[in-house]
Amino acid sequence: MTKYFVYLSGEHISVAKAEVNTLARLLEVDKTIRWDGRLGLIESHKNPVPFFLERAAMIKEAGVVLSEVDAQYDLLGNLSDDVLTNTIRPEETFSVRTISENGGFSVKKRLGFEASLGERIKKVVGAKVDLKNPQARILIVFTEGNIRVCKSVASKLRLMLRDREPGRKSFFHPSMMNSTLARVMCNLAGVMPGEIALDPFCGGGGILCEASLIGAKTIGIDLNWRLLTGSKENLVSTGNDYSIIQGDIRSLPIHRCDCIVTDPPYGRASSTRGAQAIELVEALFGKADLILRRRNESICICGSSEMNIQDLAESMGLVVNQVLQIRVHSALVRELLTLGV
Ligand SMILES: C[S@@+](CC[C@H](N)C(=O)[O-])C[C@H]1O[C@@H](n2cnc3c(N)ncnc32)[C@H](O)[C@@H]1O
Question: In a 3-state reduction of DSSP, which class is residue 53?
């Protein structure tokens, strides 16, 4: 078995861990992930790294662990020349960086490791250093008990998500879900290519765009025609099938979907035309059993903690799998829930 790692981006750690855990389940990586701060370790026969980097919004980098020693032993002595020559080709450029989790090791010591390993790679492999744009990224991760040398790949998705923020989309509205959270929610609901993903409060299509870019066929419903036209404008560039329907959640005009990823109206940016947001969620939950083809962890919903979505879901017989909190500011905590029917 090979040991792989992921290193989280640092915001909303519990949400980031939940995202990675769900992706590992989707990939059927049988082993659980061992977490050490922002570092997640997985031993597996199957390489999960390409899937993680393609899908996860909150992974900064990921790769393979080349060598691992107890912090009191000699890391570089334990790292064989063969590992280095099998990892980096002579014609490649490389960088060596260090990160420290849980406060392990002084900066001086870390820089010392960085320099020694860099010199060793130059000598043994013959590769050249390029700190800005290396072809092979070597990462030394220090934790309280261990030092690990890893070969790492940086996430490209995080940059792409930044380019897809609502303000950069063809159509913008302040009620739109930001691209990172939209992607995390799609992952928590286990959206897979070819599935039908529904957002019954789709607005300008923040969530729908991410589901579509994952490869799902999307259905968006909203009361507001102007927002629906905007979401259509945003969805065109994703190149996947979509349906946009003007309608009210209280008379849901669809029959079947595989998963629901949504955020009901709350705050000043979205209008409910007089209805209570929680009543709209109740209307959605009342229909979930009928319309969902996939039963487990097939709903991801985001609302303010004041809405008590968990209590409502439980009282209506839905299975509450996860409740994750995101503190927006002192007066607003968003809750992300994953549910099944
Ligand atoms: C928070 S916004 C949705 C943002 C969107 N999910 C996204 O990904 O960008 C909530 C949306 O719910 C819509 N809405 C309000 N009442 C509704 C109802 N009864 N049925 C369907 N949509 C409704 C609003 O027009 C608004 O666009």
Answer: helix
Report d(CA 182, CA 211) in Å as an integer: 8
Q: Among 124, 157, 190, which residue terminates a domain?
A: 157
Q: Do 171 and 153 have their domain in common?
A: no
Q: Specify the residue with its C-alpha closest to ligand 1, atom 12.
A: 201
Cα–Cα distance measured from residue 23 to residue 318, given in angstroms and rounded to the nearest whole number: 22
Final residue in a domain of this structure, among 135, 157, 179:
157
Give CA–CA dist 250/291, Å, rounded. Answer: 14
Asked if 282 and 184 sit in the same domain, the reply is: yes
Around ligand 1, the residues with Cβ closer than 6 Å are: 175-177, 182, 199-207, 221-224, 227, 248-250, 262-263, 265, 270-272, 275, 280
Looking at the structure, do residues 237 and 258 belong to the same domain, yes or no?
yes
Q: For residues 332 and 194, state if they share a domain.
A: yes
Domain that holds residue 45: 2-157
Residue type for 156, please? K
**Average pLDDT, whole number, for the chain?**
93
Residue nearest to atom 20 of ligand 1 (CA): 248
pTM for the structure as a whole: 0.95
Token digits of residue 252 = 């849901």
248-267 tens-digit pLDDT: 999 988 889 999 999 999 76
pLDDT per position as a tens digit, 208-238? 999 999 999 999 999 999 999 999 999 999 9
Q: In terms of domains, do 209 and 267 share one?
A: yes
